[in-house]
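Subject: for your reference before the review

Hello V.,

The reviewers asked for a structural picture of the protein, and I figured it would be easier to keep everything in one thread rather than splitting it across files. Below is the amino acid sequence we used in the manuscript, unchanged from the supplementary table.
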Amino acid sequence: MNKPIKETEHLHTIFKLIIAGIVSVLVIVVSCCLAFGGSFAYVWLFTPKNIHKEVSIQQAGEMLTIRYTTTYAREHSTDVYIFSEKQSGELTHYLIDGDFVSPKIKQIYNTQSLVAYEWSAGKVYFITYKEKGSVIQPFSSIQIDAGNFQDANLLYPVAKQQFNTRKWGCINLFAELLLKCNDTEAKATLQRYARGLFTDEEMMQNRGSPITSSDVQEYAAKLISKYP
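And here is what came back from the structure prediction:
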């Protein structure tokens, strides 16, 4: 009569040992996760997830879409892409530090044959323009870096006007285009900048600019060396 009871107790003992073994394994696994993956888990749990949004604006008869993605992994930055409903692919793109900030957009030139808008967001400065009967095109550091000055003659009056504002963003964007158009006045100004010579008015006007006079001096020296 005692044999079934002993077998039952034996089974209970085995079951307890199995449970204890499982618990021990779980403890070891959790400990390893905390030791090697704790920081990753913390980042994953408490770092904001990436943000994907878009904004639409009307410009020169075209609907433009600004799509941006803000990432928080490694570096907190925002990729911004601009599209037109009338064209395939992106018009242009840029990267800014931190969260998305709506670019300041302003019409800077308007004639019967050409309209142009400036875009600014921190250190980022570029223009979009539209020739009569055509579609919106960008002119930014992307075109400059690629040596794309195919519309230099078309954009010359815009470049001249904006360069003469002496705003650092305008200087950086239009300086090389003006040199390609053999503008002697712009070249003389850049030669002065390359020597680190700036007027009080220029320094005052650009106070608080994310682009510094040192940045402008370095860029001007580079251009003067390229276009002696």
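For the response letter, the relevant points are probably these. The beta strands are 51-59, 62-71, 77-84, 90-97, 104-110, 114-121, 124-131, 137-139. The longest strand covers residues 62-71.

Happy to draft the paragraph if you're swamped.

O.
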